[in-house]
DNA sequence: GGCGCATCCGGCATTATGCCGGTTGTGCCG
DNA sequence: CGGCACAACCGGCATAATGCCGGATGCGCC
């Protein structure tokens, strides 16, 4: 077994845009048999290179808002921390970019509690320098 | 037809975490028949609520870097602009949050050209106020 | 009542998948 | 050199999932 080669990169590139594509079609596009393709994808999944498959949600329901938590950290957070945050039902997306944490949260209007709980959770991180919560109504968001 | 109800929210919640789940399993979890579930998912896709399905890539190859383009815009960009940017092969993710544009790009080490081309493309947007390109090596990123 | 419509269900033909066994190429070592 | 181990590939068959119907049910409305 070796690392990620060009075929794997092609697979990742396609799956990044069409995660629900049948393995047979994926195989056809990259020029391999179905079984070989499935094998590669499985390997990528087990190796943690493919972390999972997510539906890309465009618009939100009117009955919901999106909240953005922008947090400045002293150092890059561990995967464990990010996974814990991502485990919150309200959390849509977590990204971390060199010392900055960016949460995209979906909350029911009227139940800002979920947002506050999450905010508290984030605040307990030992390396938080600054914490900003901005709430943006759906209409202001064209795409997230 | 009506807007997004609780069943749809359940569907979205599951698909957000397991986009490749078979419709049959999804149906079982939300307590509907397979055909009804498929119908709902199809409706969500056509309505643009589900924009697509993406593989969530964890680690990157050692032979690659990630580059982050942080752009400040005068106004929220149109979906067309974002889609055009997302069409670049190197682009992993595009997000836009109330006037701020955030590109996550994957580029081969040594072929910074792809990054520069993208940077130029972004610079042609008519409402760009500020453009910052930061390049972060893989080791600095625990999760994106 | 009777109509239109959204939503649901089950079934059947088609397609995709999981799971094999078998082949090929490559590096290693006696 | 011959043989071995192993990764990576292929095709095939039983099983599972999907696409695509027809038909039931509930609801608002003229």
From TrEMBL, chains A, B:
Pfam families per record: AsnC_trans_reg, HTH_24
PROSITE patterns (UniProt xref): HTH_ASNC_2
Superkingdom as given in the UniProt entry: Bacteria
Signal sequence region: none
Listed InterPro entries: AsnC-type_HTH_dom (IPR000485), Dimeric_a/b-barrel (IPR011008), Tscrpt_reg_AsnC-like (IPR019888), Tscrpt_reg_AsnC/Lrp_C (IPR019887), WH-like_DNA-bd_sf (IPR036388), WH_DNA-bd_sf (IPR036390)
Record has Repeat as a keyword: no
SUPFAM superfamilies, sorted: Dimeric alpha+beta barrel, Winged helix' DNA-binding domain
UniProt keywords, alphabetically: DNA-binding, Transcription, Transcription regulation
UniProt keyword DNA-binding, yes or no: yes
SMART domains found in the cross-reference section: HTH_ASNC
Residues in HTH asnC-type domain copies: 1-65
UniProt protein name: Lrp/AsnC family transcriptional regulator
Organism: Shinella curvata
Lineage: Bacteria, Pseudomonadati, Pseudomonadota, Alphaproteobacteria, Hyphomicrobiales
């Amino acid at each position: 077994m070796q690392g990620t080669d060009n075929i794997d990169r092609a697979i990742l590139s396609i799956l990044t845009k069409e995660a629900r594509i049948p393995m047979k079609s994926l195989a056809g596009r990259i020029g391999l048999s179905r079984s070989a393709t499935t094998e590669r994808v499985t390997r990528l999944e087990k190796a943690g290179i493919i972390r999972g498959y997510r539906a890309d949600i465009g618009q939100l329901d009117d009955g919901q808002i999106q909240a953005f938590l922008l947090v400045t950290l002293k150092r890059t957070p561990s995967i464990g921390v990010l996974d814990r945050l991502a485990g919150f039902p309200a959390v849509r997306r977590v990204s971390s970019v060199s010392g900055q944490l960016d949460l995209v949260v979906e909350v029911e209007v009227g139940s800002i509690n979920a947002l506050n709980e999450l905010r508290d959770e984030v605040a307990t991180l030992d390396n938080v320098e600054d914490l900003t919560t901005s709430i943006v109504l759906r209409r202001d968001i064209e795409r997230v």
